[in-house]
Amino acid sequence: MSDIFIEKFWEDDTLVCFSTYQSLANIFNVGTAAAITASALDLKIVKYCAKNSMAVLNNLNIQICENIFDSKSFLNQNGVCFLNCERFFSNDLLLNLPIYISSHVFACVKSEKEAENLINLLKENDTKRAIIVCGKSLEQNEISLSGLSVVYELKNNEFKKYDISAEKFGIQKTESDSLRGATPLYNAELVKDIFDSKIKGSKLDAVAINAGAIIYLSGCAKNFLQGIMKAYSVVDNGFVSKKLKYLQNHCR
């Protein structure tokens, strides 16, 4: 992390989401689903996607932007933009290239040292708000349902560190096996079924807790719990399903 540098690129009303590593378990694409869920609240979301997420998006018939400099108009038109992160990341290490950010950043990293380095780097670059998540296990590169996640939160030029867990928000603890995915086609159908309220339980919980963090980061919720409740609500009300259909029809 010491060799990376970041560059402010996106407008202040944009939330940038990324992970610096691949999970060790074959978890379905929670982060991508969470980004779409948050965007259903009319938040502007940029999600850097790894190879497996791009394969799922292709199966969902959603466009992936290959050139960051052509993507602003796409984002402004559609409210969410998926970028090929392989142009910016290599395996589990950040390349010596700029990470194009906005004033709001949600990132998942593999160690507390990475989290501290990244939060300090964001602070030095006048980032308004950031949430950096580090799981106690490398099985899942999002906020976990199976144990504690360490959160580094930057707000008003100060950051605090705290632990969160699913149980803290009234969500049942579950092992990562319940979130297993399979092929990109299978995972795409799984995401659609979650958005259509055909699948509840731990898979919906995983999407809601991560989307809730993004919603909280945006300022549309006063705390994590309220963000999570809003995430459940936009799924239950059909807004996320409508957002997915819009992206499928307009973003090819």
Summarize the structure in words.
With 252 residues, the chain is α/β, with parallel strands linked by helices. The protein has a single domain (5-244), classed as Nucleoside phosphorylase/phosphoribosyltransferase catalytic domain (Pyrimidine Nucleoside Phosphorylase, Chain A, domain 2), CATH 3.40.1030.10. The protein has helices at 30-39, 51-59, 71-78, 112-124, 184-195, 201-218, 224-236, 239-250, and strands at residues 5-8, 14-19, 44-49, 80-84, 89-90, 93-94, 98-101, 104-109, 129-135, 149-155, 158-164. The strands form three sheets. A seven-stranded mixed β-sheet has the order 4-3-2-8-9-10-11, with helices on both faces. Strands 1-7 form a two-stranded parallel ribbon. Strands 5-6 form a two-stranded antiparallel ribbon. β5 and β6 form a beta hairpin. The longest helix has 18 residues, at 201-218. It is globular and about 40 Å long.
